[in-house]
Amino acid sequence: MRITFKNSDDDYVLTKTSSIGDLLNPLKITKEIYEINNRIYLKEDLSRSVLRGEVNSDDEKYYIKVFQKEYLKLGGNETLHREAVKKWIDFCKQFLECYPSTAYFDYSLIKDSEKYDSVDEFYKELNQKGYKVWFTPFAESQIIESNSKGELYLFQIYNKDFSKESRGTKNLHTIYFEELFSQENLDNNYRFKLNGQAELFFRPKTDKDKLGERVDKKGNKRVINTRYSENKYFFHVPITLNRINKGVTRVNDLVCKLLASNDSINIIGVDRGEKHLAYYSVITQDGEVIESGSLNNLKGIDFKKLLSDRAVDRERDRKDWQEIQKIKDLKRGYVSLLVKKNI
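Now predict its structure.
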């Protein structure tokens, strides 16, 4: 394309790309559009410009495109910038109608090109509109037949939360997956978004003889690091949370605003240290201490002593190659009582 516009001012018609093949409709690229996207201006002197490819790729960081926001910040021509923004957005809309992977999205609510203050603003709105989830029913017989022919491979995402015997709080990742495909998520414009570039990994098992054994407190032999003794598949997939939230305000700013409007509100501070698992202070907004104290003892239980004793026991068990006692349940019990403490 560079050679075409170097020797001619005629439009270039694109019918296919190397990555996806044929486009749904021919896409016309004018020399003006080519220049908007490929002519770059030197940041130190916007009167000097070159086409991409005429400078070393490492030196392109010293240049800027006319439709980028930084062009205006550097003192660029505002009229030229506004025209470039509109024309580039117009071209992007045409491209979306031709590109197979984007043509079926509903872009009818996207604003007119001249109403965008920047290309970044357009890209952000485009990203919100360019995501959709739908479900297609399949007959069980069709799935079984495709699977037997090797045309379809199925895997199950499973953990303890999907068991009928499951009790207690669900795993955080379970909550994410349930929300991704929930009707509530579909009805609220996909606050949870399943991104691309998922990866599936396989970790072959390690021979038990190489893992070694240990003897537990009951005298039973157990394989060390049992999880490595079985074949495992790992599924990694990125997820975007709250992708459409607008006007997000920092919680700290909200708290400061609330305190500034009501001087009768006292402040509780909680600190951790070596002498105390947690130590609290209640102060006025003028810094006067109203109340303070240690939170080592809750409901008549000395958690600091319990945790210290458990740490000693764990270290002894580790040296004696015994089963290590869990400490997380004790910590969880302490935190549970701590957050319910009335001060």
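Residues 249-295 form one domain.
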